[in-house]
What we know:
The protein has 292 residues and is of the alpha/beta class.
Amino acid sequence: MFLPYIQQIKEHNKDFQFTLITKKRTAAKQILKYEQSVNQTVYLEDEILGITKSKINNFFKILNFIKKNNFSKIYIMHFSIFWFLVAKISGIKKIYKYGIFKKNVDIYLNALEQNKRWLQDSNLSSQTKIAYPQNNIKNNNQIIIGIGSSGPTKRWPTENYIELIKKINNKNIKFYLAGGNNEIENQIANKIINEIKDNRIESLCSLSIEEIMPIINSSKLYIGNDTGFMHLSAGLNIPAIGLFGDTPLSYANYTKNIMPIIPKNFETVGHNSMAMNKITIEQVLNEVKKFI
Length: 292
């Protein structure tokens, strides 16, 4: 979701080389492989910190990296006294930051408002578009099922996915189960495959993001939890039906490509709503029918 803001910063700094410093778990190097606004992507753990776990050592390693690259500007896209001190001590003249101390804010709305302030441009948009070689025709017979999640309360019940796939009564559709390569999500994928017993269903859990992206890019639709694959699908301009029972709706509102579903009779949802199991199969199926 930060990609449009990165693109906007580069657009307002066309003569500058742009280095993105992030964590490896973002898979930014794979996702941004074709992105022209980023000149260099650096993984904090691999290319700066190494194996050290000392906070003091980490501070000086990051400080040395910043000084070595002689950056003239820094955009700190989260609340952080650590990065502010690094930037200040390293002598960067222009420091743009959310703030030193963490605040309880809507991270999506805040990101947009901060960019408008930094760049002095009130016409900025939060709509995300990932640079990627586009197919002329999306595969009408291919659907991504997003079974992954950042925790159990953000996961639609596995039995619901099984019933949903059964109710999408079209033998020509191929289902890809998108999740992380971990024990829990591999178990969920295997349960769905073993229960339905159909060669139309395939797990993507063991694949890398780079291997999964062309499959998503050629698909007709995403259905699933609020997870990285939902945002990835939306960024690739794939309609994404997102199931929201324990995360704020603002996590979907930054793009027109995510259609959020919340439980019936709920006006909204947020952290600690614990309502994923209240989203019905029929609710999801009715939304799916608009696309297949």
